[in-house]
Write a structure and sequence with these properties.
The complex is a heterodimer of chains A (115) and B (115). With 115 residues, chain A is mainly beta. Chain A has strands at residues 4-7, 10-13, 19-25, 32-38, 44-51, 57-58, 67-73, 76-81, 90-97, 104-106, 110-114. In chain A, the strands form two sheets. In chain A, strands 2, 4, 5, 6, 9, 10 and 11 form a seven-stranded mixed sheet that branches. The radius of gyration of chain A is 13 Å and the shape is globular. Helix content of chain B is 0%, strand content 50%. In chain B, the strands form three sheets. In chain B, strands 2, 5, 6, 10, 11 and 12 form a six-stranded mixed sheet that branches. A four-stranded antiparallel sheet of chain B has the order 3-9-8-7, with no helix packed on it. Chain B starts with a strand and ends with a strand. Classes of the chains: A mainly beta (115), B mainly beta (115). Chains A and B meet through strand 4, strand 5 and strand 9 of A and strand 6 and strand 11 of B.
């Protein structure tokens, strides 16, 4: 099956610093990737839709200047949390579509802890 | 806007018991429906999906779900659960027809199986 890899799996940073999370589709080309955020014991909240070669589409309430998304190639999307604060601590998950409607392949997730 | 409701936050069953997890969605048009599962420490993965046709959908590991349009429901069922079914289950919906159509997740149901 299709494989999506995220890196890093865990990151701890100081408040005010920026953190970049990478999401790669390893064996298929992903025209669309989605970034989700998951709080403990809660569901996945869609943050943004990332389309290769164009600007990401952010969900209502998600600060696009805070969560920078770049989808520079068909196999790589990055999420940069800028000027991170403790409230940004969360589990961030990316997923990618290989073109089939609705079926997503998920990365392992990246746990961000901001001190 | 689309939304998904999962009524049970935590379900505890004994092995061999039958399972039904509720899922209701709100959207007036045609939808695609999914159940995803997240085993402890693993990625989200697709259990089954409904696009059209037979409203009774069979998925992996003996799971099935029934789409009842009049009730806006897509409940997940399994006749006899196993300890290995312990996981978090997410119902999801998308209303588009392209790979860029976003998927909205329910809040999840944690299933615990007693050996």
């Amino acid at each position: 099956g299709a494989v999506v890899s995220q890196h890093p799996s865990r990151v701890i940073c100081k408040s005010g610093t920026s953190v970049k999370i990478e999401c790669r589709s390893l064996d298929f080309q992903a025209t669309t990737m989605f970034w989700y955020r998951q709080f403990p014991k809660q569901s996945l909240m869609l943050m943004a839709t990332s389309n290769e070669g164009s600007k990401a589409t952010y969900e209502q309430g998600v600060e696009k200047d805070k969560f920078l998304i770049n989808h520079a190639s068909l196999t790589l999307s990055t999420l940069t949390v800028t000027s991170a604060h403790p409230e940004d601590s969360s589990f961030y998950i990316c997923s990618a579509s290989s073109g089939g409607v609705g079926e997503l392949f998920f990365g392992e997730g990246s746990r961000l802890t901001v001190l | 806007a689309q939304s998904v409701s999962q009524h049970n936050h935590h379900v505890i069953l004994s092995e061999a018991a039958s399972l039904e997890l509720g899922c209701n969605y709100s959207y007036g048009g045609t939808v695609n429906l999914f159940w995803y599962v997240q085993y402890p420490g693993q990625h989200l993965q697709l259990l089954l999906k409904y696009f059209s046709g037979d409203p009774l959908v069979k998925g992996i590991k003996g799971f099935e779900a029934e789409f009842i349009k009049s009730k806006f429901s897509f409940n997940l069922r399994k006749p006899s659960v196993q300890w290995s079914d312990t996981a978090e289950y997410f119902c999801a919906v998308n209303a588009g027809y392209s790979s860029a159509s976003k998927i909205i997740f329910g809040s999840g149901t944690r299933l615990s199986i007693r050996p």
